[in-house]
Write a structure and sequence with these properties.
Distance between the termini: 19 Å
CATH class: Alpha Beta
Structural class: alpha/beta
Number of helices: 9
CATH topology: TIM Barrel
Strand content: 15-25%
Order of helices and strands: HEHEHEHEHEEHEHEHEH
Bound molecules: pyridoxal-5'-phosphate
Mean pLDDT: 95
Low-confidence stretches: none
Number of domains: 1
Largest sheet: 9 strands, parallel
Shape: globular
Radius of gyration: 17 Å
Length: 229
């Protein structure tokens, strides 16, 4: 890979993404700050997260609880208003740890995990904001609740978590036009009177904002290509 020009810094990439988010909100007739940026820092070192923090970014996403535990507690000490979202598939036995370190878990997708999160909430006396991940493409290898079960599962989560249930999240199939998936997720959220819609990544966050995303999860467009895990 050729070396990046010096103007291509993490700070400049972050600024550029922020402007594109604001412009997309504008174009969609939404408030300029209607979609929040989750900077996805998975596989990147704490030093990269710090650079983003110095550039004003406060909200981060991590896939793995273990990696988040290694990186974020020290950062949080230095930057108390930092926010962390868990955006990767969550094992039941990691639910308690996830609730300890995260401000939101975006990947609630099965009854066993609902039970584990309920127990964690009882034990800690609080729960992070929770998002139901919907497998909008019904892809067998992907986490998320299948479309056919989404209504019932969202209703279950509402019963168990009340207003801790913040919204829905999806990752459309890679080879498909994401727009119909975003439209479906936004409609489902609306039907369940949920305000939060986490959708859109580096390649398609502008489309997601057009369809009502309130959170966009952008990794490589900010931090560059991910080093191998
Ligand atoms: C890695 C990841 C992202 C960020 O993807 P980019 O294409 O690098 O922006 C967003 N959401 C989830 C769930 C991810 O795992």
């Amino acid at each position: 890979m050729s070396s990046a020009p010096s103007s291509d810094t993490l700070t400049s990439r972050l600024d550029r993404i922020r402007s594109r988010i604001a412009e997309s909100c504008d174009r969609a007739g939404r408030a300029t700050d209607a979609a929040k940026l989750v900077a996805v820092s998975k596989f990147h070192p704490a030093s990269a997260v710090e650079e983003a923090l110095r550039a004003g970014q406060r909200l981060f996403g991590e896939n793995r609880v273990q990696e988040a535990r290694e990186k974020f507690p020290a950062l949080r000490d230095a930057w108390p208003d930092l926010e962390l979202h868990i955006i990767g598939g969550l094992q039941t036995n990691k639910a308690l740890d996830a609730c300890r370190i995260a401000d939101a878990i975006e990947t609630v997708d099965r009854p066993g995990l609902v039970d584990a999160l309920s127990r964690a909430g009882d034990r800690l006396g609080h729960l992070p904001a929770l998002y139901v991940q919907v497998n909008t493409g019904d892809e067998p290898q992907k986490s998320g609740v299948p479309r056919a079960d989404a209504d019932r599962f969202i209703t279950l989560c509402r019963q168990r978590f009340g207003n801790r249930l913040a919204g829905l999240m999806c990752i459309p199939p890679e080879a498909e036009d994401p727009a119909p998936h975003f439209a479906y997720l936004a409609k489902l959220a609306h039907e369940h009177e949920l305000m939060g819609c986490s959708m859109g990544m580096s390649a398609d966050f502008e489309t997601a904002i057009e369809h009502g995303a309130t959170l966009v999860r952008v990794g490589s467009a900010i931090f560059g290509n991910r080093p191998a895990p």
